[in-house]
Structures are given as C-alpha cells and as structure tokens.
Amino acid sequence: MAVSAYDPQNIFAKILRGEIPCNKVFEDDHVLAFHDIAPQAPTHILVIPKGAYTSYDDFAANASDAEIIAYTRAIGKIAAAAGVVEDGYRLIANTRDHGRQDVPHLHVHIIGGKKLGLMLPKD
Ligand code: 5GP
C-alpha cells in the first residue's frame, strides 16, 4: 500500500502557518514545540519539525542533516527544560494506521511528570 502524501491542511501545518494558535514552549529555525491541547500527563509536549514530513520514517529518509540534528537536539533540550529528565519520561511517535497517528505531520510526544502506565495497554 502506498504511503499517503503530506496533507498541508493538517492541524500542525495550520499551527506552523500561524492559522491556529498554540501554547509554544520552544522554536528555532527547524523545530516548533507546544503543549498538547489534551494533555495525558502533567507534562505533555509535542515537538514537530517545521518541514513537511508525515512521519519519522519520512523525516529520516528525506530531511536534511541540519533538520535531523536540530530536531534530535531540540527534543533533548525541551525534555530537560520541562524538568522531566531526572525522574524520566516517555517519547512517543505514533505512526499511521497501526500506530494510531491522528495528525499526519511528524510529532514526538514528550510525556512525563508522573509515573506512567505500561507502554502498551491491552486492547
Ligand atoms: P497523535 O494521535 O497523532 O499521535 O497525536 C496528536 C496529538 O495532537 C493529540 O495528543 C492531540 O491532543 C493533539 N492535538 C490535536 N489537535 C491539536 C491542536 O489543535 N493543538 C494542540 N496543541 N494539540 C492538538
């Protein structure tokens, strides 16, 4: 099955264009991070690349080295700034249908601030 093309009308593309507000926690040339609108833990931050990438595999294959370095470093910096590094946290990148990705623009969830449940609940 072919992988879908990037949809420029997805909600994170609208946030990047400033058409929808977000509660921003970090921004640089390649990366934007903001609080999730429906947090599932005391810390729940979404980190997105500014480029039009649907998923981590798309990003890894097609992003420039500068974008990949910026994104990787930003996730670490944002976790540290959020104060979750010492106690620990979880990174999640839901991907497509089986991964239950709702927004088709690459995003990593940084989730922490409490002891989290099991990684995969039973269906
Ligand atoms: P996914 O299920 O694609 O991994 O996660 C999408 C996340 O985006 C969800 O946790 C959802 O709460 C969040 N979200 C959806 N729409 C918005 C929005 O307009 N603003 C923000 N800040 N988060 C959103």
From TrEMBL:
From which domain of life does this come?
Bacteria
What the entry lists under InterPro entries is as follows:
Histidine_triad_CS (IPR019808), Histidine_triad_HIT (IPR001310), HIT-like (IPR011146), HIT-like_sf (IPR036265)
Q: Which residues form the HIT domain?
A: 11-123
Motif residue range(s): Histidine triad motif = 105-109
Per the record, a Pfam family?
A: HIT
Q: Which PANTHER family match?
A: HISTIDINE TRIAD HIT PROTEIN (PTHR23089)
Name of the protein:
HIT domain-containing protein
